[in-house]
Write a structure and sequence with these properties.
By secondary structure, the protein is of the alpha+beta class. The chain has 2 domains: about 130 residues, Sandwich (Jelly Rolls); about 30 residues, no CATH class. It is about 20% helix and about 30% strand. Strands 3-4-11-6-9 form a 5-stranded antiparallel sheet, with no helix packed on it. A hairpin with a 5-residue loop joins strand 7 and strand 8. The protein starts with a helix and ends with a helix. About 25% of the residues are buried. The structure holds 2-acetamido-2-deoxy-beta-D-glucopyranose (2 copies). The site of one 2-acetamido-2-deoxy-beta-D-glucopyranose has 2 residues, from loops.
Length: about 210
């Protein structure tokens, strides 16, 4: 009898300690600044079902770029209902030879290939590369914060969707981080060991100066 009481009390404690949220949802109100916990909530009385539906993933993103890549993100900033819920989704269209350049973010990512074949991989923090050609229906996980990439290595366009366990994953792409800003060329040369000519070439491609 006593052990049953203990089990019941323990169950109650566990369920109380996991019940942290006091609202069902918190659709972002962009009139107020973002905080580490996310945005302020819109008044629920002003919401309709359309606040919880996002239709932009039905069409490819703009693919007129050096990577032959279309990206449509459903993050809290584009789909405010995701605010505070800890997940998001992105549509990826890769033309033949198209690339998602090596990048990282603070959330883990799960890719699902819908069409085509994609070489996908990540680099472990011990520098071990884990990569493989994925086919239609395959999923692969890229653990949070590790550098990763995708390349369409097939003869036809590829389509994939990724989900991430953050509404605001914070994408950082290595080439943009190095070459799209005014970080001086000689500093980049020193920290990467790339040739100065190569650094200048990357700055020209990605709009960097200095
Ligand atoms: C939101 O709803 C409140 C009532 O709950 C109303 O007073 C207010 O005008 C609404 N705001 C907008 C922007 O519709
Ligand atoms: C696609 O992106 C290119 C390059 O940034 C731009 O010139 C073009 O206007 C964009 N197309 C559309 C439909 O937005």
């Amino acid at each position: 009898m006593d052990s049953l009481k203990i089990i019941l009390s323990f169950t109650l404690l566990v369920s109380l300690s996991s019940a942290t949220s006091v609202v069902d949802f918190c659709v972002a109100d962009f009139r107020f600044p973002v905080t580490p916990a996310g945005y302020s909530c819109k008044n629920p009385a002003n919401l309709t079902v359309d606040d919880f539906v996002f239709s932009s993933l039905s069409v490819p993103g703009n693919m007129s770029n050096i990577f032959n890549l279309g990206v449509v993100p459903a993050f809290d900033v584009t789909f405010p209902a995701l605010n505070g819920l800890g997940l998001s989704m992105v549509r990826l269209d890769l033309g033949v030879g198209g690339v998602v350049p090596i990048h990282s973010h603070r959330a883990s990512e799960l890719i699902l290939v819908i069409e085509g074949t994609i070489i996908a991989g990540f680099i472990g923090s011990d520098n071990t590369p884990y990569y493989k050609t994925l086919n239609k229906g395959d999923i692969m996980i890229f653990p949070a914060s590790l550098l990763h990439f995708q390349v369409n290595n097939g003869n036809s366009p590829a389509l994939a969707f990724v989900s991430l366990n953050s509404a605001s994953p914070g994408f950082q792409t290595t080439t943009f981080a190095l070459a799209s800003n005014d970080l001086p060329t000689d500093v980049i040369q020193k920290i990467t060991l790339l040739d100065t000519t190569q650094v200048r070439k990357l700055k020209t491609v990605f709009g960097g100066t200095n």
